[in-house]
Amino acid sequence: MASGTEERIKKILESLKKDDVTTVVLDGKRGVGKTWTAREISMQKDSIFHDSLWLYLNNKYDSKSLHENLARQMSLFSIHEECEDDDVEEEEKEILENLKLKISKKLQDVISAARKNNKLFLLILDDVPHEQDAEEIMTELKKLLNPNDISCLKVLITRDQSDGKLTAKGRNEEIRTSNTRLCNIYVDQLSTEESKILLKEKVKKEISDSPSFEILSNFIVERRKSMPNEIITIAKALNYIGHIDSGVWSLDSVFEAAANDAEVAINLLFRSWYDTLLSDVTINCFWHSVQLFCKHVGVHYNELITHWIMEGYVGCIDHIEKAYEKGHDDLMKLIDRGMLRKQEDNMVIMGGMVSSITDQRRREFNGTANLGLANVFEDDKWEGLGRLAHADGMIKSPCSPKTWEKVLTLLMDGRSLGREVPERYFRPLQKLQVFTIFNPRFKSLPLSLTSIKSLSILVLRCCDLLEKIDHIRELENLNVLEISGATCLKFIPNNLFAKMPHLRSLNLSESKVTSLPSSLFDKSELRWLILRGCAQLETLPSLKSFKNLKVLDLSGALSFQKFQDKTFNPLVKLQTIDLSNSQINRLPFLHNLGGLTRLLLGGCAHLTRLPTLNTLPRLQILDLSGATGLKEMQNEPLDGLNVLDLSSTQISSIPSSTSNLSDLYLRDCSKLVKLPVIKAMKKLELLNLSGSSNLAEIEDKSLEDMRFLRVLNFSKVKVKALPSLSNLVNLRQLLLMDCSCLEKLPEMAGLKRLQELNLSGCVALVGLPDLKAFDKLEILDASGCRDLKEIQDKSFENMSHIQTLNLSDTRIEFLPSVPKASNLRHLVLRNCQNLKDLPPLDHLSKLEELNLCGAINLNGIKAEFLEQMVHLRILDLSGTPLTKLPSMSRLTNLRQLSLKGCSSLETVPNLEAITLLEILDLSGTSIGSLPPLNIFSNLCQLLLKDCSRIKELQNLSSLRCLEVLNLSGTRIEKFPYEISQLTDLKHLDLPDLKSMHAIDLGKIKRIPQEVNCDKGGIFECADIGGDKPSISVSGSTIFQFLDENPQLWETKFKRFHFSVIEKQGEDGDINGCKDELFFRDLYSYTRHFPKEHDRSLEIHGSYSLPKGFESVLQHADYTSLVDNDRISCLSEIGADNVKVMKGCWIERCSEMKSILHGEEADVRLGSSLEILWISNLPKLSSLYNGKEDLECFKNLKHLYLDCCPMIVSAFPSSQLLENLEIFHVQFCERLTTLFESDSPSGSTLKKLRTLYLLELPELTRIGIKLQAQVTLEVMECPKLSKDHLDVDDRFSK
After folding, report:
1. What is the CATH number of domain 3-188?
2. CA–CA separation, 293 vs 285, rounded Å?
3. What is the DSSP string of 578-645?
4. Chain region(s) in the chain for CATH 3.80.10.10
5. 531-630: which CATH topology?
6. Model-level pTM?
7. Residue among 773, 818, 811 nearest 793 (CA)
8. Span 65-99, pLDDT tens digits
9. What mean pLDDT comes out for the span 207-222?
10. Quick check: 1008 and 979 in contact, CB under 8 A?
11. Which residues are registered as beta bridge partners of 506?
């Protein structure tokens, strides 16, 4: 520790040792190290303190919060215990007094323990408001103690002090008050030397020993003005980068840059630190925190996680617990990196210097958040979410069942509310201020919710059933409103926002509204207007009243065409305009928008011109990618621009004055023939011209001044030669994939920091440059360079960082040696047919993938080196002349083993040790047996084609993950009936079935999507066993086979049950819906279908008839259609296809509007029906809407109608159903009559035996006269009276 720091700590300790000094106050500017100093004192070795207690006051103070903080930190209660102790009838004063008694006793106990050890007890109050009088705090604390205890209690206070608050004399003084003294100590910033020592102490030794560390240290201390918090954060960044030390950015790169330019090194450090955030979720949480901590010194970690959940960073969730766990995981990632810091009392603060990182994402905070909570309350009108707890599937203000009405903040998912009566649930919550619900299942909002006048934030997310929101108009205090994912919401009342003068954030994403209410457009306090994915919205009225608007987001509004405003001049605070993927063809004028930083117009294919942009001084990101109608940009100065994306436009030139540009994207610009002039863009870091296939000319010196360039991508361009690259000293990635005309590479000796060189697909390239200088290279990919014959010897020997080496499909004969201290993970030499020899590979202990597939001339290959490759995950030696393998016992991490075509290989020693295998390909080998397959529980593909010595497989049924099984060419003697248990199996290749023992078709319960047989079909070779074959089918192969071999219907399939349970694929096949319904419980419909039915077909999901499917329909007596969202009428499956159908079950077919239409085809279809079961058809309005054709349902005997909410009458006439015996109707909420035109006195159903009516609230009449033999059951049909029936004692309610 530096001498000055030691002196300060020593002085503070000396003051605290004095008997008559109870309090030391550390004053100073924010960031100078007051909290750090207090922490150092509390952690002193051989301390004078027996114990210490830390309270973080977050720049707020009042008596109640002080005592509650004390109680929590002393573990006097958990949040839940605290809530249970509350009594609704107790006054606040009584509660506080009881709390003081508990604190007093605990404090006296800990101070007594300190006294027994002749030591002191230290209480640290961190971040006290600077205007707060320390003596007032001490007065509160003394009330909790006995007079004898005061001498053992020492209080250390930190507080921010503004300039001039303390005089020079008063910066370090002792103030006598009553019988004690209060000592003020002013904490000044560290000296330069102290800062250097602190940085060196906090970084790891291997980092501080680097020769460039001193240069970097000097620059850091000079730039950051010796702020300890920021120095500690930089140290954490250095340590973290040093720990992972991989990827495009590394610590070596930082130190190399420091030797030449310390500022570049610092920027590189923070960029590499930031780039360790691999997840978009974590990145979004990070930037939200940056925004939040601009206005708040710290927040409790529960509140921060809840912010992230509310902003939608963890996605649309079904379980609050999962969302909280995800948020907590991301919090720990940020804390591990030092970007956030967690205090002793669970408060979270931002690490120093983090705010200096620039957010260069297209959609930064303004484009990724759903609500903007971090900045819509910039004037501090909002006090935050308050103290929170997560339990019982909710995040809420702490409360007990007795104090439910005190809840201020509540987050829940629809699953939790589903257990409650919503109207009753919200009634007590009249103090609720923040309410968020995910996946609510209500169609309209409960009145008790919309009557809560205190609501400030209301979030209804993923509310796909919500149809009506009229009553929200009563929430006059709303600041933030989100109603997103309301796909059923098509209309919003014009006066909805009339009583919401303070609305600041509105999110209506993914609604189906075509216009917005006029009452919205006078809301002058609105900051955020989010209309993402409002696909029906075409235009917006004038926005001129939105003088505080910061974010306007219409991304994904696919029909949006224009604004009413011709200019956005009044929107002076606008920061983000996002119209991505809209139909906008012309923008309003953008003058006077001094704060606009992002203009996002990606995918605006109808945009043909831009307004003047040089009036936007702070514009940083301009995205025009996919604006295919844009042919030119005005040549105007855009010197503030950082990112310009013109990908997939028709431009042929770009503005010349863009001197601060860092990222330039010109992907797929087909009109670009010559590289535009970019010499002035000296700060360029990324240049991407990939896919600009007509680009053939690049000026020789166009890149020579770009010392900041990191990424250069010329993939798929037609240049034959590149300009000199030697001056690109900071280049990390050079990407030249599929440059089919590129014949040679330029001199590249200066690219000493290059980490990725990708030349894959450069088919004309005949040689590589000298690679010895590329000692930082991590990825070298020259795959597909088919004219590449030679690589210079020793080319790789300096590449100690190389991780991926791919030379597939080249013509090399020899591979240069790989460095001894190798980090190589992937060595891929696929289809190197000229390769004759390999260098020693024994030292590649970190290798994870080795692919020598197709190296057919690799003579004398000895595979002993494999024993050292314990991290190997992929091993492909297919097609090599391999004769022997070493023991596989150490390759326990192997996931993929491919030995296809190694015809001389007879065994794989210790194969059973590789228990994690997912792919095993032994095709064409001479292997004679496999170990029991239950060892390989993760196996997805088992390929044994032409393994002619294999006769059996043990425990095949244990391979529950198996998707592909190839047994063709094997000599397996028994049919593998276990395939019926392999529910993931999609592809099956079978051997010659004629050589097998008798096959029992009755034992085959399931057939995968694709089945191939060597000789003869599976059904030709099988006998029928058991009652009848019941087979679950995953594809159309079986139906095509039966269509081509119709004789099988009479020989093998006189009786059958086929279950097709997959949904329609793009190729017309029936594929892919993995489900547990492989054998549906047939009881639900066989109780109504006769037990003796011989031929049945069950179809789950939507489909169109693939080739051959008609054949099975034509032979099925009983058919079920379940979960079909395509057909609207039964006849659409083809009347001639189902002419023998006697029974039909139709369930959850969402588009079905009528069963039959009465056309000729319908008559043929319906005339054979005997049983019809209809259930859960939400759009069904009639069973029959054609003319009264007496033939249509003439043979119908049993009719079941269930849960059809739109149907009003079942049939136009009873004459259609002359043979009906059972009629069962239930849960049809709009049904008013069974038969429309008949009068009860004149019509009867002579064969009707049973009529069952259940829960038909609107049913008023039946429409026929019931005969005496009819058994009648009526329940919950309130409008159906005896007067409407010619019955008496058979009628029951």
Report:
1. 3.40.50
2. 12
3. E-TTS----PPB-TT-TT--EEE-TT-TT-------TT-TT--EEE-TT-TT---------TT--EEE
4. 531-630
5. 3.80.10
6. 0.74
7. 818
8. 777 777 777 767 544 444 444 444 445 667 677 77
9. 80
10. yes
11. 481, 529
